Amino acid sequence: MAVAYERIADQLRQSIRAGRLKPGDRLPSEAKLAEEFGRSVPTVRDALRVLRDEGLIEKQHGRGNFVRRPRTVAVRTNLRHQWEKNRAREPLAERARTGATEHETGLHLNDLVFCASYREVQADDDLAEAFGRPAGTTLLERTYRTRHATESAPFSLVTSYLVHDLIAKNPGLLDETKEPWPGGTQSQLCTVGIELDRVEERVTARPPTPEEAEALDLPPGTSVLVLQKTSIDINDRVVEVSCVILPGDRTEMLVTTPLERW
């Protein structure tokens, strides 16, 4: 049998899902809810904590509890890589028209706020092994954060690594102010004669670090998906390694596997 705070949480949950309480609505104060349900304020607080943990409401300091606005969902499919490759050599105007984030969210370019940061780093043992290069090899580390203009949290936390020597002949690839690059990484690599043969992706799930939870504005108890991506060119060289941290509350992974005919 449900205890008192669970029954309160369930009634509020039903009101939210039925639309009687709409996104952005402020809930009555804890004292008002306690009076309405005939329970103590601590019992009401327990109920509200459950709803916050489920991501249905959020507490704004000094203002109260509000129905959480639904976040934009990103559907990440493995077919995105061929889609990007098909566009890599398209004219600039075509590549600039849309990108992978728009493709995955259904948003338009003007809906997005994009931020990129570059720096040179030395490959540690793990990255050196991934690239098949000596430890200490100079890499270009790129971090990306893209969000909906009406939301505070990005769709993902992306850290990408390229071998500096492989891309240095195009100085534009070392310049973060050139981002967002129309056509994405495959188009960037195309400018220095690199064609991808395949992309390997490994996905695991884990609790977020405190920094990830804050950056992605995750409800308590929400996991993240960790996508480790390795891009391999037609000469069987690893040319990019990236780590993508995806919020578990608004990411859908869609895997489509074409099957050969008998």
Helix and strand arrangement:
Blueprint (H helix, E strand, L loop, with lengths): L3 H14 L12 H8 L3 H13 L3 E4 L3 E4 L6 E4 L2 H8 L4 H6 L2 H6 L6 E11 L2 H7 L6 E11 L8 E7 H4 L16 H7 L5 E11 L3 H7 L7 E10 L4 E10 L3 E4 L8
Helix content: 25-40%
Oligomer: single chain
Instruction: Just give the CATH class of the largest domain.
Output: Alpha Beta
Spell out the helices and strands N to C: HHHEEEHHHEHEEHHEHEEE
- Please give the largest β-sheet: 6 strands, antiparallel
**Spans of at least 5 consecutive residues with low confidence:** none
Which structural class matches the secondary elements?
A: alpha+beta
**Lateral arrangement of strands in the main beta sheet:** 4-5-6-9-8-7
Structure at a glance:
This protein is an alpha+beta fold and 262 residues long. It has 10 helices and 10 strands.
